[in-house]
Structure formats: structure tokens, C-alpha cells
Amino acid sequence: MKLIAHVDADSFYVSCERVRSPGLIGKPVCVLGNQGAIVIARSYEAKKTGVKVGTPVWEAKKMYPDMVFVKRDFRWYSVLSEAMQDVLHKFSDTIEYYSVDESFVDLGDYNGDVHNLAAEIQNAVKQNTGLPVSVGISLTKTLAKIASDKNKPLGICVVLRDDLSLFLADTLVSEVSGIGVNLEKRLTPIGIVTARDFVQKDRIFIKKILNKPGEVLWYELKGNFVLPVRNERPRRKGVSRGGSLFGAKSEKNIVFAFMVRNIEKLCDALLKQKLEIKNLVLFLVTDSGFFLKGEGILLDFTNSFSVILEEFKAIFYRVFSGFYKYKGLHVMGFNIRDFSPKQLSIFDFSGEKGRKMDKIRESVLKKHGLFAVRSANTAYINDVFRDDASNFEISDMDKKFCF
Fold it and tell me: How far apart are CA 74 and CA 393, in angstroms?
């Protein structure tokens, strides 16, 4: 029978830290982000103390004084993530690098002992990378992903056709990837509490309330293979960069500097992926969680930093209000196509100087890395650039499909 494996690293960031610092094994460990200000990942021991993701470090120290805190190192995590992919390719040529800590493996028509195969995958990853992983194997991607989460950490769960009914009955509908808590609130009042309740409803009924994605889940949960394991990442509908401002900021020049920093990251991603964009969107996130949104359209498709910066600058001045304090922002590019060299026209206002600077900037970045050359506009947030951990994000990793 055709089988799919979902391999999911357990407490990935913490496990990466334990690979190079074995003394952390067995201890309650939290990985810190936002320049060491908040918890972004926890070991299983730390989870038992009640510390949550997003807890400020000072509060976590009060809750559990013996907690060990480690600052994030996304470059190191990316090294181990890619090493895990190398191991999985020993079991199949078809691997979907879904996120930094999880992948789908197309096992083809497998006729051997499936539990032994799951254990082989788990042991191979551990021996070659030091990372503990949980493995779920089933008939579809959706089922395999649910299965890998059933017995964490270091879990193995195999769901074949004969196991399917009991497995679905033991799975809450909110545990199904693609449904979550919000859709659960719509499904519970109509008697859909478990995954088995979901598949027992008529397919047309499910499609009416959840549209095409719901219909796909209905087939997948019934064990009918619909979603393929993809070797190559599909074309993204948009490219974005952004995140926290490391506190609540009200100064226009500070918020603007953070925007420019993320535009540099956005343009770096476009250059690496040989893409160009035409539509721009800016989101400013207030400290109360309110979003201010601005949009713009470029005269032509481009990945030029100088051109994109000028349009985002105009958007920023339309959107920014001194009435608020801001805790985050996101810059986004849509209407994407492959980069295409073009002849300059009379409508190109970037200027010869700007085009030359873009080429110089691109060559320096290729040789020395992101932020080796950066806009003077970012001088207002020099403290961010002094922190090497801030120069590389999970979103900067190539090849993976999502975060």
C-alpha cells in the first residue's frame, strides 16, 4: 500500500541547543527571542512549569528560578534542519521540506514492517543529527501529520486501513491540520466533535460549509490519497518579512528604520529566488493589536531595493500615526513573477545612480551576507544590528515550504 510518513522534531529549538550543549538534557530550558526578552520555545520539562510561549523572561524567572535560558540561534537551527533532510533522503527521493522542523516522506508502495520502518527513520535522524523526532505513518499526509503528534516526544504512530475508524474517533476535529480552533467552533454545534464525526458527514455537506479545502480533508481523513508529497516548493503568492519591534515604539524614525530593515530582507529574498514584484502592502501593528494597513503599486515589476524603498516610504507616511505605539510591522510583496531583464524606459524614475547602487549592494551581499551593506535609514536601530541573532530569521532559510 502507498504510505506517507510525517517526521516532526520534538521541541526543535531546544533540541538543537542540546545537540551542542548536552548538559542541557533533562533540564527545563527556554529559548529566548526578541533580543532575549521573551520565551519562543520550551523543553518538555519547561512546559510542565507553566511557562508559555510569549512569556517575558523576567516573569519566567519568577515562575521557575531554576529555568535555563538560551538565546536563539537560527543559523544553527537551519544547519540541523537541513541535516535532517539529508537523512530523510536516504529513505525516499520524494521529500516535502514542509517547515524547519517537519517533513513529509513519500514511502511509495511499502510492504514491509511499517513500525520497524518508523523506528529506523527515528533512529537514523537521532544518530546522524542528535535530534529526537516523532514519526507518524499513514495512508495520507493529513493522517500522517495527526499521527506524528499522538505520542510525543520520541513517538511512533502507525495508522493503517484497519486502524482508521478507532484513530479518527480518538482525534478531536481541532487536531486536524487545516481546521483549528476557529473552525471547530463552527463544527461543534452541528455535531462534529471528532474526526470520525467529520468523515461520517456527507461530502457535499462538508464542502458547503468548508468549501474545497474541507472536501480535500474529508477525502484525506477517509484514507484516500489526495494531497501529493511535493519535492519542489510551489510558487508563493506573496513574499513578506517583518516581526517584532522589540518593544512598543512611538517614534516615527524608529518605526521607519525597522521598516527599512525588513525591506532589505524582502529584497534579499527576491534576489535569491530570482523574483520581482509589483504590489506592495505595509502592516503596522499597534501595542493593542490593532493593524494599520497601506498599499501601493509599482510602475513595473522589480526587485530593486531603491525603487521598492521609495514606494514603501510613500505608503509609510500615509499610514503612520503618532497617536499609537507600535509593536510590530510587516512588509509584503504580491503580484510575483520570475525576474526578467528589461530595457529601461522613460517611466523609470529610479535613476542611474540608484541602479548602480543596487548592483553594488547585491554583489556585496552575495560575498559578505545580509546587512553587510545597509541603508543609512536604519542607523536609528543600531542596537538591533549589534545582535548577530537578529541578522538571520527562520524565514531566511531556503527550500522549506513554510515556517
Answer: 6
**Pair 123, 72: CB distance under 8 Å:** no
Cell 515550504 belongs to 401
pLDDT at 345: 57
Burial of 167 (0-12, 13-18, 19+ CB in 10 A): buried
Owner of C-alpha cell 518579512: 241
Whole-number Å distance between alpha carbons of 380 and 331: 19
Question: Do 240 and 259 contact (CB within 8 A), yes or no?
Answer: no
H/E stretch holding 46 reads: helix 44-47
Distance CA 356, CA 29 (A): 48
Half-sphere exposure at residue 77, Cβ-oriented, CA atoms within 13 angstroms: 25
Which residue among 45, 102, 311, 393 is the active-site one?
A: 102
Answer for the pair 362, 59: CB distance below 8 angstroms, yes or no: no
pTM, full prediction: 0.86
Is the separation of the CB atoms in 144 and 104 below 8 Å?
Answer: yes
Is 102 an active-site residue? yes
Beta-bridged to residue 332, according to DSSP, are 240, 281
SS3 35: coil
Q: What is the pLDDT of residues 90-133, one digit of tens each?
A: 999 999 999 999 999 999 999 899 999 999 999 999 999 999 99
> Which residue type occupies 108?
G
Q: Residues near 78 by Cβ (< 8 Å), separated by ≥ 6?
A: 100, 392, 394, 397
* C-alpha cell, 341: 531583464
Q: What is the pLDDT of residues 344-359, one digit of tens each?
A: 555 555 556 666 777 7
Length of the chain: 403
Give, in order, the Cα–Cα distances in Å from 310 to each of 107, 259, 321, 388: 49, 12, 19, 27
- The verdict on whether omega for the bond into residue 153 sits within 30 degrees of 0, i.e. cis, is yes
CA distance 243 to 260: 13
Which residues does 53 contact at the CB level (< 8 Å), separation at least 6?
A: 39, 40, 41, 42
